[in-house]
Amino acid sequence: MHSEAVASRSADQRDPRESRNGNHLDAVSLAIIEQLQEDGRRPYAAIGKAVGLSEAAVRQRVQKLLDQGVMQIVAVTDPLTVGFRRQAMVGVNVEGDVEAVADVLTDMAEVEYVVMTAGSFDILAEIVCEDDDHLLDVINKRIRALPGVRSTESFVYLKLKKQTYMWGTR
User: Fold this and answer.
1) What's the number of CA atoms in the CB half-sphere (13 Å) around residue 2?
2) Cα–Cα distances in Å, from 27 out to 7, 98, 134, 136?
3) Cα–Cα distance between 169 and 38 in angstroms, integer?
4) Rg of the chain over CA atoms, in angstroms?
């Protein structure tokens, strides 16, 4: 449990455990998140027992965390097993408004991950496609055709060795 670390921070320091909307996540909410990261299907009663709350209280907290965008509960698949044989990370360099390009990328069904970066690329986008032709179409006809896109560099995945979302609530 992280209650000592949370309690010892001074009030004037911004807690990195604040949600994106500025709401502070207490030790119990963090423990609930950790429980769900271990097993997203864990029953609320079992979570309640682990964190010291009733099943109803856990259900309310989980719903609040979902509503605030703090977390999502999803089924993570291996793309190969569900028919998507090509994945790539695409670095994008932009002239002008980086956020405008990132917003368009975010709306593309094939794009699973978009992050604006400081470094060699303005944006990194992870793309999941059915095959090489599909990937070529997405990069060549859709991403490179976007206003403001100056260049792209593709990093095609050869083998997925590790994909987890278990960083907890460090």
Assistant:
1) 18
2) 9, 36, 45, 46
3) 12
4) 20
> Residue 35 is encoded by which pair of tokens?
């429980």
Nearest-angstrom CA–CA distance, 108 and 115: 14
| Maximum Cα interatomic distance, the chain, rounded to a whole number of Å | 55
- The partner residues of 152 in beta bridges, in order of sequence, read 92
pLDDT in tens, 59-115: 999 999 999 999 998 887 777 778 788 999 999 999 999 999 999 999 999 999 999
Distance CA 26, CA 36 (A): 16
Give the separation between CA 163 and CA 128, rounded to whole angstroms.
Answer: 14
Whole-structure pTM value: 0.71
Phi, psi angles (nearest 5°) of residue 111: -90, 120
Q: How far apart are CA 108 and CA 81, in angstroms?
A: 21
Under 8 Å between Cβ of 32 and 62: yes
Distance CA 86, CA 157 (A): 7
Residue 23's pLDDT is: 59
Average pLDDT over residues 14-22: 49
